């Protein structure tokens, strides 16, 4: 149902500039950016805590995969509906509801751990709730960004949004792992700290404006098509992408690159603990190093994302990401793995920023949420693939399974480049 309550208007955006932080001059976007910063800080910490718990309780790669499988399955089911919701009702309302759910997950897990009541089966449930929340959170946040800053600074704003996500990866995993290993805090206390940070994110969301979505504005103006059910709206989104091959190619390539390549994250706890024989603090360091690489490329990407080189940089970063994951599989030592993780983090941040920017720029405002939901299905695929990849790791070896992930990501970019080249030749 469309939100028909009176809507405030976003603050007038300042004149666009070319600085790497230019979109943060927009007060409304700044509130959204701060909310995302603290939300990701909380979630990144929980990601590590959940991995540590799963490994401590089971010492099994397949168990780690199951936790991510449930996350992906819940996203797969809910993301298309989340995209429709983002195009039909207030994105602010969606984001606030999702943040409350994320806060509740962190608080509940903290209480369960501290009371010594946690069991492995609770981890997939927590993962599933978080996946459902992200299914609505992610497309709404990206589409809300477009509403707040306009298209002139969309690439800059999206790059800074990705920066907030990757910036938290610099220290959140390390701090979470460190807190989990401290007797005075432990995993339960770390979860409660994560819940407090999540509540802070909610406070910033409450300071963002309630902007009428494009579909609602069109309805009030009498120019919108007749409203139908949510599944019809989902099909409309799929038809829209099919009619716009430039969007479809990015959605498909991103799906395979993220679904397989990004699964290196799921195996980091076992790679550090079992392959390299190190403790949880070293896991935090590894995750932080990957995030440092992401931050290092985020600011240059923010400056270039609205320029003519964006498409070429997206293709290059996708290839580098797949190749770096492939190289990680054969890292002979922890130190060399850290060097490779710099490239992994930097290339994935650039690929995510540019693929989202290019897809959103090529999409109509009324379809922005659904296009973003289709891009987010890659993270659903990432979670779903983690389960089978965990079984593959136990069957052929952890290093070999990680090599398969990187190889598939590179092949996806080969396919994208080939189809993109044919399309340009046909256009000429």
The SSE string, one letter per element, is HHHHHHHHHHHHHHH
The value of Rg in angstroms is 21 Å
Number of DSSP E strands:
0
What's the main sheet like? none
How much strand content do the residues show? under 5%
Structure class? mainly alpha
End-to-end separation in angstroms reads 44 Å
Arithmetic mean of pLDDT: 80
**Count of DSSP helices?**
15
- Poorly predicted runs of 5 or more residues: 1-8, 12-16, 216-225
Helix content: over 70%
Topology of this protein?
Elements: H1 27-58, H2 61-88, H3 91-114, H4 122-149, H5 154-180, H6 186-205, H7 214-220, H8 230-243, H9 245-261, H10 268-275, H11 280-304, H12 310-328, H13 334-361, H14 368-396, H15 398-427
Helix pairs in contact: 1-2, 1-4, 1-5, 1-6, 2-4, 2-8, 2-14, 3-4, 3-6, 4-5, 4-14, 5-6, 5-11, 5-13, 9-13, 9-14, 9-15, 10-11, 11-13, 12-13, 12-15, 14-15
